[in-house]
Design a protein that fits this description.
heterodimer; A: 154 residues; alpha+beta; 3-stranded antiparallel β-sheet; elongated; B: mainly alpha; 3 helices; 0% strand; disordered C terminus
């Protein structure tokens, strides 16, 4: 029930932000459709959806600025490689052990790798990620550690 | 005026990174390496452009019209979730179908971070 309530609140805030029209008719329609979707989605996947608590989202907010910084650094690095006349690349596949164990943590880790230019996640199974890297010397260790920290113990 | 300069700098910078990403897609040798070029366009290219557009909305923000900024922020969030997802789907499909990754000419002396 509380999950449906959270869904409703998020949906309704989104509705209000998107429409920007605050009249009884549009707000009423918003309440109706958000309530319907919240009830509907609560019936669909009460089992399969990943469990997260509030702490996860707070730790995620702390993680994001660091990820953004890494993305900018990697962007500049790859841009430099692409623009260099000699095109100094050495593509390789790497088996990297994955720290995060929950589906949410693994998705965060794999997406972080892919989002960072120069590395892209091919596969994730048995506690390792298969990564394609454009250049040598990728530094996955800290990202792994930080994703574990976001994941927490829950 | 200052806002315009900042905004244009961000927009032009974003455009520059989009072009670099495009150059990467052409210059890089095989499928997997080309996805790295595309990810420059997806992250810093699109990100800087959205930031530039966000700066453009700031005068309206002070007038109480902050919905545009919220929507730009939402676009950014969606983009940063969907682009790695689609990129991963592409390379995973290629890998599953046996597209070779080790045919590209490599430079053993090349050193780079990530």
């Amino acid at each position: 029930m509380s999950r449906a309530l959270v869904t409703f609140v998020v949906l309704f805030v989104t509705w209000l932000l998107w429409s920007g029209v605050y009249e009884p008719l549009t707000i009423g329609l918003g309440v109706l459709s958000c309530a319907f979707v919240a009830w509907f989605s609560d019936r669909i996947d009460s089992e399969s959806s990943p469990k997260t608590d509030l702490g996860f989202w707070i730790r995620l907010l702390i993680y994001l600025p660091w990820l953004l910084k890494e993305i900018v650094i990697a962007n500049l690095e790859i841009a430099r490689v692409i623009c260099a006349p000699s095109l100094p690349i050495s593509p390789q596949l790497l088996q990297v052990p994955s720290g995060p164990k929950t589906p949410m943590g693994q998705a965060l880790y794999a997406n972080s790798i892919t989002l960072t230019p120069g590395t892209i996640t091919l596969d994730l199974r048995d506690g390792t990620v298969l990564v394609h890297a454009l250049c040598k010397g990728s530094s996955q260790g800290e990202m792994d550690r930080r994703c574990c920290a976001v994941e927490g113990t829950s | 005026m200052v806002l315009d300069i900042v905004s244009w700098a961000l927009l032009v910078g974003g455009g520059l990174f989009c072009i670099i990403g495009g150059v990467g897609i052409i210059r890089l040798p095989d499928f997997y390496t080309r996805t790295h070029g595309a990810s420059i366009t997806d992250t810093l290219g699109a990100g800087l452009m959205l930031a530039g557009l966000g700066v453009q909305t700031l005068p309206h923000f002070l007038d109480g019209d902050w919905l545009i900024l919220v929507k730009l922020l939402a676009i950014t969030i969606f983009l940063f979730i969907t682009s790695p997802t689609s990129g991963h789907a592409l390379v995973k499909a290629a890998y599953a179908r046996g597209v070779r990754w080790d045919q590209a000419k490599t430079d053993p002396d090349a050193k780079g971070k990530e």
